[in-house]
Write a structure and sequence with these properties.
By secondary structure, the chain is mostly helical. Helices cover 54% and strands 0% of the residues.
């Protein structure tokens, strides 16, 4: 079995929807698909991330360090 390598944007997607398990995370990511369907590039990124997540084990998912990819929310009050 070949090693699955994630790209930086895929790590960011996983970090945004990180859950306790690989399956829960993939399901949460899949829930956004109807909302982004008009953005082909983003849809491709999300589908590719879900596909790659399906190719790794739960143990491999648990070993991923997603902390560096978590984004700080932007302040909406900045003027």
């Amino acid at each position: 079995m070949r090693k699955v390598e994630f790209e930086e944007n895929e790590y960011i997607v996983m970090a945004m929807f990180e859950a306790k398990t690989r399956q829960e995370s993939a399901e949460q990511i899949a829930e956004i698909l109807p909302f982004i369907e008009e953005d082909e590039e983003l849809t491709e990124l999300v589908r590719g991330t879900i596909d790659k997540m399906g190719q790794i084990s739960d143990a491999d998912y648990s070993a991923l360090d997603l902390e560096p990819y978590k984004q700080e929310p932007e302040d909406e009050d900045e003027d």
